[in-house]
Amino acid sequence: MTSRKLTIKVPATSANIGPGFDVVGLSLSLTLTLTVSHTRFTSPPQSVDPPKISYSGEGAEEVPLDAYKNLTTRVALYVLRCNGRPHFPSDLAIHVHNEIPFGRGLGSSGAAVIAGVLLGDALGEFQLSTSRLLDFALMVERHPDNVTAALVGGFVGSYLRELSREATEAASVPLAEVLPEYPPDAGEAWGQDPPSPPEGIGHYVRFNWAPEIRAVAIIPQFELSTAKARDVLPLAYTRKDLVFNLQRLAVLTTALGQSPPDPDLIYEAMKDRVHQPYRKTLIPGLPEVLSSVTPSSHPGLLGICLSGAGPTILALATGGFEAIALSAKEVFKGAGVEVKWQVLTVESGGSSVVYDE
Ligand SMILES: Nc1ncnc2c1ncn2[C@@H]1O[C@H](COP(=O)(O)OP(=O)(O)OP(=O)(O)O)[C@@H](O)[C@H]1O
Ligand SMILES: N[C@@H](CCO)C(=O)O
Question: Rounded to the nearest whole angstrom, what is the distance from the C-alpha of residue 15 to the centroid of ligand 2?
Fold first, then answer.
């Protein structure tokens, strides 16, 4: 039996960037790191001992350390089970260090899902393609923006392929069937196999990113779950609002790749009428922050938006970072919201898996 050590790194992400709701994502310089050791699978199967998980950093007080409850290890087990390995390998020990705050719109759950997919692939030595890894991630996190940017890195646009009726049914099963929370009783096999993802669910393209653009993340000190922030959105939109967003998104995806970036073009192109106006009820101060920080009041600013489902605000800028952050902080303070802020870079490399020699 041989043992192996590996390190998995997954970046934070910001989804939407204004008008690109559920479509575009940007990977950012905060990292979820898994340091893993385990014994390689052998045939016949080894005895199954429960994985040991330790955890430091963001979310350490709330994250479950039981491998059947923890999002990352549940996703890893899903990948293993779909590929003929019904349990974790022996002697599995995982230390997680997380820099991505939970429930702030910086893609913490997307990163945890991608870490799980990469972990399952690495433990099983399956060498799944990027496209197949994405299929597994999309069975868990069902919009592609965060997970695609976390997996491949950079500034990314993605769509979900229209699936056949059978494939749609396969991809729409309840999450509890994909990720059961309980292992089988000792000595017993799993009941039904989990539903394998249909092939080629997600498709993406990477846009250029002007290297001088940084992202100032202004992070309110409260959590807002993505589920709650999606519940406030309408089911239908007017043609006027859809055209408003489509016009801006078409311009934005190229404008953010041009050097030097044009603030006049980008500031307007980062406006949105599909999700931000509805989320203001959940984020005190949101409309005031978005309207008070502009390229004319803050030289260096290019555009400002809600990051993902919020409550973090993302300001894209080439300079004047501190002035932007302090103004947003002041406005939030007036609304009774404390914030932290950080200047982040856009990470083009995406996720990585590195094996120790
Ligand atoms: N590293 C992690 N390990 C285990 N669970 C995690 C991890 N990171 C996030 N989660 C789970 O995901 C939840 C947050 O997900 P949610 O989708 O609400 O917000 P987000 O992903 O941070 O924001 P957004 O999707 O808007 O970018 C956490 O409360 C936790 O349950
Ligand atoms: N596009 C998603 C991102 C959050 O995960 C939303 O805004 O709800």
Answer: 6
pTM: 0.95
Confidence band, pLDDT 50/70/90 cuts, at residue 48: low
For ligand 1, whether the C-beta of 31 sits within 6 Å is no
Ligand 1 pocket check for 309: Cβ under 6 Å: yes
The pLDDT of residue 185: 63
Averaged pLDDT, 255-266: 98
Structural domains in the chain plus CATH codes: 3-203 (3.30.230.10), 209-344 (3.30.70.890)
Q: Report the alpha-carbon distance of residue 152 to residue 208 in Å, rounded.
A: 13
Question: ipTM of the assembly?
Answer: 0.97
Residue 108: which of 58, 142, 64 has the closest Cα? 58
Q: Is the Cβ atom of 106 under 6 angstroms away from ligand 1?
A: yes
Residue 201 pLDDT exceeds 70: yes
Q: Which amino acid is at 222?
A: F
Residue 284: the pLDDT is 96
Ligand 2 probe mutation, 13, 17, 21, most atoms within 8 A of CB: 21
Q: Which structure tokens are listed for 243?
A: 């055209």
Task: Give the whole-angstrom CA distance, residue 174 versus residue 53.
Answer: 26
CA 199 to chain centre: 21
